Every structure is written in structure tokens, then in C-alpha cells.
Amino acid sequence: MALKKIKISLFFIIAIFLVLGLSISFQSLLAAWTAPLANPPTCATGDPGCDAPLNAGPLIQPKSGALWLNTNGLSPYGLIVENGNVGIGATGPWTDLVVGKTSGIPQLDLGKNNQNFMSLRYDISTGVSYIYSYLNNAVSNLALLPGGGYVGIGTTAPHGKLDVAGNSHLLGSGGRKIYGHSDPNNYYIGSYPVAGSDGLDIHWHGGVRLGDSTGSVL
Q: How many angstroms separate the CA atoms of 62 and 140, rounded?
């Protein structure tokens, strides 16, 4: 009889511990869950528990935090946008991919890391575009069509490695410049300092000018 009472007491104590453990676990689950401040549709976006999960619906769904995709690598794809334009820093992308800012210099980089990459940039304040290549965080070489082909500036049908349709200037060290220039009456090439003196002009009609623009044509 005494042994039976001991067994009943042990079962009772075990039951108490089980009830206490389940109660604590349930309370911790409730503490981790935040109830919405209001029921739909008055539950405001941004309030705890009010943001809708990402789904397949047609409506725009904003998300304030970062979005990581394919973290387990089970799919060979990360992000596929089948239709429409993609904007990074731009809420109204006007083409397939737009990297935008309202000020400063928007930048698109392709590379291995932030030390080795190629960079496309656009200066909003000046309207000037830039192409940079970096190796170990230092400006590196940039090769255009290393496998062959022609580069055209101002023309869509280049006839040489570099075909410039219009005036061209090549500025060397010491301010010396080699240029090609055309106007309604002349086409000539030459070399001169930036100041425009002590130069050499070869005109389209075969004349050679020595000195500045007032020099004689030979």
C-alpha cells in the first residue's frame, strides 16, 4: 500500500513538472509573437503584425528590410524578372535595368569584390559618364574589343580601329596636342601647344602652315 502511494505521488509530481514546462514554453511562444494593433482593413502597414507576406498577387508589396533570395542554393536561379523594368534606387525605371539617384553619381559595378571591378558611372550634376577599371583598388587598364573589331565615335560604321566622325584632339604630356579638325572650308590635322603657337598644320589641299594660326601656308 505504501509503495502504491509512492508511485501515485511520483506520477503527480511528474505531471506537475510537465504542466509547468508546457506552460513556460507556451508563454515564450506568445512572447515571440506580436499581435496586430488592429484588425484588417484598419491595420496600418508598418505596424507590428500588419505587413502582408510576399505573395503571388498583382499588387505592389513594399518591404522595409533586406530581401535575400535562394539562400540554401537549391535553385540555380537567384532572381528572374520575366516582365517589366527593374529599378535600383529608382522608383520609375524607364528601361530594363536602371541604377538611379536623385543626386551624386549613380554607379554600377561588375567584378570580383570592391577591390577588383569595372565601374560605370554617371555624374548627375555635370551629365558626364565614366568607365573605370580597378585592379587591387588601383585604376587599371581598360581594353575595348581586344578580340578584334572597330570602334566608332560619332559613326555607326567605323572603317578602322578607331574612326572619329568629327573633330578630335589627342593631348600629350607638356600640353602638346595632335588634332584633326574640319570646318565648312578646310580640313586639316596638326600639332600645337594648348596656347596655339609653334604648331604645324597640314591642310586638306596639301598646304603646310608653320607657327600659329597667322603663320604662312607653304
A: 40
3-state DSSP helix/strand/coil percent for the chain, to nearest 5?
Answer: 15, 30, 55
| Bridge partners, 108 (sequence order) | 120
Extents of the domains making up the chain: 86-139, 151-211
CA distance 111 to 115: 9
Q: Which residue has the higher pLDDT, 183 or 115?
A: 115
Query: Quick check: 137 pLDDT over 90?
Result: yes
- Model confidence, pTM: 0.58
| Most confidently predicted of 27-41, 54-68, 158-172 | 158-172
